[in-house]
Amino acid sequence: MTIFDDLKSHYASIKDRRIESMLDARRADDFSSQAGDMLFDYSKTNIDTDARDMLIGLLETTGVAARRDAMFAGEKINETEGRAVLHTALRNLDGGAVKVDGEDVIPAVRDTLARMEAFASDVREGRYTGQGGKITDVINIGIGGSDLGPAMAYRALAPYADGPRCHFVSNVDPADIAQILRSCDPATTLVIVASKTFTTIETMTNARTAKAWMSEQVTDPAAQFAALSTAMDKTAAFGIPASRVFGFEDWVGGRYSMWGPIGLSLMIAIGADAFRAFLRGGQAMDTHFRAAKWEENLPALLALVGIWHNQICGFATRAVLPYDNNLARLPAYLQQLEMESNGKGVSMDGADLPFESGPVVWGEPGTNGQHAFYQLIHQGTRVIPCEFLVAATGHDEGLHHQHQLLVANCLAQSEALMKGRTLDEARAKNADKFEGAELERQAAHRVFTGNRPSVTIAYPKLDPFMLGQIIALYEHRVFVEGVVLGINSYDQWGVELGKELATALQPIVEGKADATSKDGSTAQLVGFLRTNGL
Length: 534
Ligand code: F6P
Prior knowledge:
- Helix content is 48%, strand content 12%.
- The chain has helices at residues 3-14, 19-22, 25-30, 49-61, 64-72, 87-90, 106-125, 148-156, 174-182, 201-215, 232-237, 264-270, 272-291, 298-312, 330-342, 374-379, 400-419, 423-430, 436-445, 464-485, 496-509, 520-531; strands spanning 32-35, 38-41, 99-100, 103-104, 129-130, 133-134, 137-141, 165-169, 189-194, 225-229, 245-247, 317-323, 360-362, 386-391, 454-459.
- The strands form 4 sheets. The protein has a 6-stranded mixed beta sheet, with helices on both faces. It has a 5-stranded parallel beta sheet with strand order 8-7-9-10-11, with helices on both faces.
- Helix 13 runs parallel beside helix 20 (464-485).
- The radius of gyration is 25 Å and the shape is globular.
- The N and C termini lie far apart (58 Å).
- Bound molecules: 6-O-phosphono-beta-D-fructofuranose.
- 6-O-phosphono-beta-D-fructofuranose (F6P) binds next to loops.
């Protein structure tokens, strides 16, 4: 019997126990933990002390601590690509040496950070200008990790943004870039091409479109371009001078890269000091992750709750529900972070995974979601564990009463999910409106099974430091889940097949080759679209 088997039989034995029946003040305290001023409460789950002990046993038997130390030390834990995993080095503002292949990477990291800070200040303060004067707009062209991180953080930290406006173009759909270009003046726009590889077809296509747009209006378009990449030869070939290229190494995974050069647009928007506060928040979570014992370790606990719900209880999806509208892009960001990292069907050694891979992650900010998909969360037949995020205060002091209403809604949702409403209660609540068989029928529609698990991450305010803590918390959660499941969280072979087939389809779509080599459905779709103007 493995610990997984033990956990499954334990779950089978407590499955119908009401969470509410366990939830006194002592449990709330015992089944929550704090890192700095962030509180993680997982008391509204069915995890009890026995389950928690077994889950922590998983951390021990799978060697999470040793793997964590290996990651921070720069060992090549991304085994399928032979790379270190060192995004933590990007936020290591005051730590010692970290070596990859015997070389300390920290001096270069700090040097690049200093160059980014100098450039960001030059842009913000008008020392670096466009050919029409001070930069008013920054367009970040990138996709996946070269877009989602800075786009999410720019939105999250909007109250701190006092620099040029930032726009994020990612989709190869021309509708994306066309709309943004229409809203900008090329003479005062800085275009940042963000691509780790500088080969991603969507990004390079959009970058060429932006260059053509710029060259219609300004004499030297390349002078208003910067690049963020690991591929210096390719940025030079695109015509971007080395002085405006901010490089990083292959030990920074795309979806973990916003702490370094990929964060340049964010830094220009919020300034170097606020960006450093963001890094310090990430670094604080690193320190916590390395030092806190498992019972108090937020990334470990968040990961274990995830494993409990997905691999043990069989709940296949997880809703991320920020009651913080500025975190509107967090679910999309987490979809890449979690699903590209842990959506794998084989273990590190190539054997089939003996349990489900990471969950489907989705969500929207509350309260909006309440008026859309919460119906299914409350009364649908599938259990969907929910993850609430909520701040004690917002940024609009004069509207604090509105923030209090937001918080009341957040807490009400987790309470409703847990408590539900029995048939008797539904009957009693509707006895004044209906009677007899009609009362029975109407009451049945108003029953909530309850006993639906949720966790809550609460914090004082979404400032740059807190955002850094939140993002690093999720990164380490993914790491812990990956180690426990035996997955390599740092490659993404699953995105390759579609890219290859898209390249092969391009001449067919353009009408330069016929579709006879394709399956009947694909050929039919090409035919339909070409008949209709493709
Ligand atoms: O196709 C997936 C992916 O490789 C992601 O992992 C990455 O974040 C994204 O594409 C963009 O890659 P790049 O930064 O190299 O353009």
